[in-house]
Amino acid sequence: MTGPLQILIVGADPQLADECESALVSLAGEEPVFHRVADSRQAVEIARSRRPRLAIVEMGTDLARLKAVVADIAAVSPETLAAAAFRPELFGHDVSESGLLIEALRSGVRDFLRRPVSAVDLGQLVERLRRQGPARPARWGKIVSFISNKGGVGKSTLAVNTALALAVRYPERVLLIDTSLQMGVCAAMLDLEPTLTLTDAARERDRLDEMLIRQLATVHSSGLHLLAAPSSALEGSEVNDDLISRVLTLSRRAYDYVIVDTFPLFDAVVMAVVDASDVAYIVLENVVPTLLGATKLLSLLDSVGFPRDRQRIVINRYATHSGCLRPTDVALRLNRDVDHIVPYNRGLIAAANLGRPYLSRTWRFSRCGQRLTEIVDDVAELSPVHPELNGKGARAVPADAEPNA
Questions:
Q1: Which of the residues 92, 229, 276, 316 could staple to 248 if both were Cys, CB 3.0 to 4.6 A apart?
Q2: Beta-sheet pairing, 225-227 with 218-219
Q3: In what order do the strands lie in the sheet with 174-178?
Q4: Which residues, including other chains, have CB under 8 Å from residue 383's CB and lie 6 or more apart?
């Protein structure tokens, strides 16, 4: 192994981390970096950003929870070895020790540590990792989200068109997830009537895996897969941020691209989407009220630690009417470069109303279509299946650029 050993410790019991740290103090030559987290969502974020070599997960009788945590970590960091830490008293007279351990192995656990964790047991585990050599990270799909704190700016239109155009290039390898739980419109924009939605994912959360994700998706004629929003606000109440995090981590194992449409409100669900996103497109219009809201949204993203190099600014429905701001004004107000400018086009609105995405027709050759295609190209550069691409993400559009409608 090269560099310090990264160890992720997942569990509500703070003594578990203390036991592991004390055990490794006596091991010569090891100066591990520990990451302590209490819940699965924090574990996923650390696993995705730090790529720990070892994850030690607290094990109880709730094996469904253990399976979910291990699967989520594996989804974002396949090279991480998962070990379950258990107390001997977990196995009472009426509990089969071998049965529980076998079920844990089926959940993706690769090793076990008896508590309190000893230097001998943990040392042997670390030695096995050392003999295996550096882990070879697997490729996984990229998650791209479209967000805004104001409705009516065309965010869903951009998400649907981006997803569809990618699916035309890479059939069956693109998933569009509509996380606008109260009023999802992606299905209507694709002229689809899904029989399964995110609500079904919530109701099957204990057996949710990559195969089930694909089974829950509705297939469009373009080859695009859609995991639709709940059919009603009441059903939407069954979906929470923990489920969304799990759906996203599993989806990136099943698809090369996962495009996410969101509700125009920065709540826990949208926060879960942003946490998982490789890139987030912030959609706004060149009018003052929307710009003021976008400024607050960008400040919020900064405050929660979402890196600026994973943010893209899109001026959608760009208009040159009197009173509308120029791209230079928008860039100045935001103190950011504008990455994309999509001009106002009535055909784009008509396409959404008809359920026939703009980029699925000959309109893709229009100037508006070309600007939309630039977003698609930038997302495609994030592809994990094309290592020759540089993966730099979106190209910045000069702030004084003037699109032609």
A1: 276
A2: antiparallel
A3: 218-219, 225-227, 174-178, 257-261, 142-147, 279-284, 311-318, 340-343
A4: 142, 256, 257, 389
**Rounded CA gap, 49 and 57, in Å?**
18
Report the SS3 class of residue 136. Answer: coil
Residue 398 lies in a domain: no
Give the pLDDT confidence score for residue 194 in this predicted structure: 96
pLDDT cut 70: percent of the chain above it = 87
* Residue in 50, 42, 22, 259 with CA at minimum distance from that of residue 121: 22
Residues 287 and 293: their CA atoms lie apart, in Å, by 10
Cβ contacts of residue 99 below 8 Å, gap of 6+? none
Please give the pLDDT value at position 387.
31
The pLDDT value recorded for residue 340 is 94
CA distance 91 to 97: 6
Q: How confident is the model at residue 27 (pLDDT cuts 50, 70, 90)?
A: low
CATH number at residue 34: 3.40.50.2300
> 128 in a domain, yes or no?
yes
Are 205 and 320 in a shared domain?
A: yes
Same domain as 345, residue 275: yes
Q: Would you call 113 helix, strand, or coil by DSSP?
A: strand
Whether 75 has a pLDDT exceeding 70, the answer reads yes
Peptide bond into 134 cis (omega under 30): no
Count of structural domains, the chain: 2
* 383 touches 257 (CB < 8 A): yes
Last residue of a domain, one of 132, 167, 195: 132
Per residue in 256-281, pLDDT (tens digit) is 999 999 999 889 999 999 988 999 99
Query: What digits encode the pLDDT tens for the residues 217-244?
Result: 999 999 999 999 999 989 999 999 989 9
Residues 36, 16: one domain?
A: yes
Q: Which domain holds residue 315?
A: 142-380
Measuring CA to CA, which residue among 163, 197, 203 is closest to residue 180? 197
Residue 389 is assigned to a structural domain of this protein? no
Identify the CATH number of the domain in which residue 282 sits.
3.40.50.300
**Beta-carbon count within 10 A of 90 CB:** 13
Does residue 387 lie in a domain region? no
d(CA 281, CA 373): 14
Q: Do both 52 and 165 map to the same domain?
A: no
296 and 182 within one domain: yes
Q: Same domain, yes or no, for 109 and 209? A: no
Rounded to an integer, the average pLDDT of 132-140 is: 61
